Amino acid sequence: MLLLSIETSCDETAAAVVRDGREIVSSVISSQVAIHAEYGGVVPEIASRKHLEMISPVITQALENADIGIGDIEGVAVTRGPGLSGALLVGFSAAKAIAAAKRIPFVGVNHIEGHIFAAFLEEAAPFPFLALVVSGGHTHLYHVEGFGRYTTLGRTIDDAAGEAYDKSAKIMGMPYPGGALIDKMACSGDPAAVRLPRPLIRDGSLNFSFSGLKTALLQHVAKHPVTIPGQDANDLCASFQQAVCDVLASKTESAIRQTSARHLVVAGGVACNSGLRSRMAQLCDKLQIGLSIPHPSLCGDNAAMLAVPGDYYLSNGFASPWTQDVTATWDMDSIKELFL
Ligand code: KG4
Ligand code: ZN
Asked: Please, are residues 264 and 292 in contact by the beta-carbon 8 Å criterion?
């Protein structure tokens, strides 16, 4: 199937044309990051209005880049949730309108599910596998048995990993979102320079907590202000990154052992992180299991990733009903009730 996929859950307006849920024919991402940076975070009202402005140009560009017309599209996959309701509604309404006008099916896909299957745009991972999703809103471990069949094994009880990165960057005086900059500065720093906590690392659960780590960093900066650029800031970034990676690697290892998983998929914006990518490679090497981490260009929000589960659902007769609405929260474990 030739699918058009649309993503507007947060601050990127994205559209892609994907063949058979595997081959990206075109992918367009219009980011609002620079607009929200001024406010230090995403402003939902502004996000919705910007999506409304960009949705048509972005879809048109994706079709143009694919060198096809709207009449060539056989189905539409769109993010239904989780995300900002007003933002989701823009992409969802556009998807429904195109599907209705062209008399083709559409399917509402879970954003997290999209992140997990971004890896399949490069190479399909063998089911069942363990998935670590690390983004601005999520830090979750899932047991993935197949499309739509997800069991949550662990989750953050407070901040998500990306949120901890962005808040810590703000404390150090960096612009929003500072995750990528911390990563860059960490490469020139000493990870043993500042002692920071590893919250919940030995609590026996598969849950995460990052708010205490961010508070410890805040207290350190209050006593030892950092200058950017500067070696002290690089050292603090490296120490912070090491603490985050220690916790993520430790919990992921426990989950692999508990589930006897033979393959790990790491997904979401924080999967761009160089420290995390090499830690996960070391871990999978040690445990002798397979690893999929998509190219950084596929880790952040994009529309192509939605077409992987979207193609599966539409090919198997699970089109969404016309009455379907968006959902700001959507538990991955409940997806099986919709599609199986
Ligand atoms: O998946 P994503 O694009 O959007 C959400 O669904 O949240 O993830 C965005 C998050 C932000 O918190 C951003 O700072 C973080 O991913 N991020 C990084 C890196 N690149 C992006 N965090 C750490 N290191 C990076 N290299
Ligand atoms: Zn995302």
From this structure: yes
